Amino acid sequence: MIRHILLIKFKKSVGSAEIADLEALFASMVPKIDGVDSVEWGTNNSPEQLNKGFTHSVFMTFTNEQARKNYLPHPEHEALKKVFVPLLDDIVVFDYQV
Fold first, then answer.
1. Minimal CA–CA distance to 42: which of 13, 12, 74, 8?
2. Looking at residue 74, what is its pLDDT?
């Protein structure tokens, strides 16, 4: 099992409707791409205020390494990136195996 974590800092011009649409787009990956087991979306609510401007996260679970390999070049992922990347000010991507 592979965990895929995105920490997201949106451009200041990005509105809540765009973020909601993006959240739905991420969630749509589960039924569209084999091996994407789950997608969670979250907004930072830490009282520690150590998020360095990153406000949102995506937590994806892939069945295995092959599922992640299939996801990265998948046309649905490429379509998601066309929407997602222009909204970004910064991002951290962190994967690990469970």
1. 8
2. 97
